[in-house]
Hints:
By secondary structure, the chain is mainly α. The chain has 3 domains: 1-99, Tetratricopeptide repeat domain (Serine Threonine Protein Phosphatase 5, Tetratricopeptide repeat, Alpha Horseshoe), CATH 1.25.40.10; 117-172, no CATH class; 187-285, Serine Threonine Protein Phosphatase 5, Tetratricopeptide repeat (Alpha Horseshoe), CATH 1.25.40. 76% of the residues lie in helices and 0% in strands. The protein contains 18 helices and no strands. It has helices at residues 2-9, 12-21, 28-40, 44-61, 64-80, 84-97, 102-115, 119-129, 136-148, 152-166, 176-184, 190-203, 207-220, 223-233, 241-253, 257-268, 271-274, 276-282. The mean pLDDT is 96.
Amino acid sequence: MLFDVHLELGNYKLAEKxxxxxxxxxxxxxxxxxxxxxxxxxxxxxxxxxxxxxxxxAETSNNKDLKIWSYTNLADFYGHNNEIKKSYQYYLKxxxxxxxNAYAKKGIAWIVYSFEKNPxxxxxxxxxxxxxxxxxxYYLLKAEIAEFMGDEEGKEKxxxxxxxxxxxxxxxxxxxxHNAKLYLEDANKQExxxxxxxxxxxxxxxxxxxxxxxxxxxKKGAYKKALEISENHVLNKTFEPEAQYHLAEIYKAxxxxxxxxxxxxxxxxxxxxxxxxxxxxxxxx
Length: 285
């Protein structure tokens, strides 16, 4: 659990130290954390291998909860690796064990939207899920799909519903990053976004938090400051596609077109994970 905490907080040396202390390739808990660590380092192939081994253990133990968890996480990894058919199959395997599993249905909705480009069916799935499961981030996904469809009214309606539902004190600071990203798209709310980003860095000084800080300076037109933050705190420290996209845009804004184009090639391979809207922006780099 200390490994989990330090990985979440961005204390990567401590996380690695704890991981080495309970090394055991025959242990489910070790394998899933080794998978998470491999993904953090950008080694998706190893992350998948270790998650597959963990899934085998879950199946051998015939523990229903562990199998459901393993199937959905493995489905996520397969999706990141553009193995969409495998991803879909493992979401279905989890639904066979738990037909009302909202996470798996959301994953299938993403496949339908991002891979099949069928936004209406994706919305139908999400609406069905939200009858019982009204997590705020579902509204953000519906807003994105509405924008893809050219439905500006639907986009704004879902953003408003997200803001209302995520404002509950029960969520604490859980949605700071989501809110910051949303505010950065509104020129009138960029200072509010910066306050949230600074809180995120105070709470979790991760490369993703610093990526948002760099992106906030990019949005203001302070390209050199954005580049400085990205090169000091993001470059080679996270391999998340969204952070890489931001880095490419920041390189381009600073006249470093060659570096931007190098990242662009890799980003196009992550088109499914990033979704159609972001992919359109990547193609303009």
